[in-house]
Specification:
The protein is an alpha/beta fold and 256 residues long. The protein has a single domain, classed as Aldolase class I (TIM Barrel), CATH 3.20.20. It has 8 helices and 8 strands; from the N terminus they run E-E-E-H-E-H-E-H-E-H-H-E-H-E-H-H. Strands 3-1-2-4-5-6-7-8 form an 8-stranded mixed beta sheet. Helix 1 packs across helix 2, helix 2 runs parallel beside helix 3 and helix 6 crosses helix 8. The structure holds iron/sulfur cluster. Iron/sulfur cluster binds next to loops.
């Protein structure tokens, strides 16, 4: 029996930053990560219950679909893969209606020894937007409270399966805005064959009020927002490192 009720944080009917075109964006409730820069701390709690059915969501989609030209449906969070069966059923029914589907995930729940459910979800997923929070294992732990092993494994798995991926990376002064780490990220991305886009997103502090409302201390107090120029420079560093590594990898292959 497919899971047809999901725990939904909110819906945005005309999103412009969560995939190609204008998107209908479903934010799932619940996330195990604790990214210091998270701007949706209200989506963390798995116990908040706001159930919606696949049918309800797709009916809402139908109501605005004329505005979603060149777009489609994006599921984000929270962490959508925490409710993988629901998202699979949502995407399955969306594909029946020829709707473009995008999954925005941290990949934290991926396990390379148990891919059955993920494979099923990917059958109905047109695009994965994979958030790589930090390329360095120790720093990733400090930034999110979790290891990055599952996330990097998921990136490799998506490349093996040839699933189109947009990589997203938030640059934060003192944390990820660092030439060594950005170059290392480029080296890793050079090993993947399925990247269609690289979104380097500047950290902003617009969520301060949300933390105050939730009576949580703001974790990045005093860290300045990243400027657009810094984000552009960071993207250039990643792309240059990627290009250099790809060339080196090709040279090594042709020598052997
Ligand atoms: S994975 Fe996303 S929702 Fe979860 S803590 Fe990080 S930024 Fe927030």
């Amino acid at each position: 029996m497919p899971q047809t009720l999901g725990n939904i944080h909110s819906i945005e009917t005309c999103g412009t930053v969560d995939g190609p075109g204008i998107r209908f964006v479903v934010f799932m409730q619940g996330c195990p990560m604790r990214c210091l820069y998270c701007h949706n701390p209200d989506s963390w709690d798995f116990n908040v219950n706001k159930k919606m059915s696949v049918e309800e969501i797709l009916t809402k989609y139908e109501g605005v679909k004329e505005f979603l030209k060149n777009g489609g449906l994006t599921v984000t969070g929270g962490e959508p893969m925490a409710q993988i069966e629901f998202v699979t059923e949502l995407f399955r029914q969306a594909k029946e209606k020829n709707i473009h589907t995008a999954l925005d995930t941290s990949g934290i729940f991926f396990s390379k020894t148990n891919t059955q459910k993920v494979d099923k979800l990917l059958e109905y997923t047109d695009l994965v937007m994979l958030d790589i929070k930090h390329i360095d294992a120790t720093e990733h732990n400090k930034l999110t409270g979790h290891s990055n092993v599952a996330i990097l494994d998921f990136a490799k798995y998506l490349s093996e399966k040839k699933i189109p991926v947009w990589i997203r990376h938030v640059v934060v002064p003192t944390i990820t805005l660092n030439k060594t780490y950005l170059s290392k990220l480029g080296e890793f991305l050079a090993t993947l064959d399925n990247i269609q886009a690289l979104d380097v997103l500047p950290y902003h502090d617009m969520a301060v009020a949300k933390y105050e409302n939730l009576q949580k201390p703001y974790p990045l107090k005093g860290v300045p927002p990243t400027t657009k120029e810094q984000a552009l420079d960071a993207r250039t560093i990643i792309l240059e490192s990627m290009k250099k590594s790809k060339l080196e990898n090709m040279e090594q292959k042709s020598e052997s």
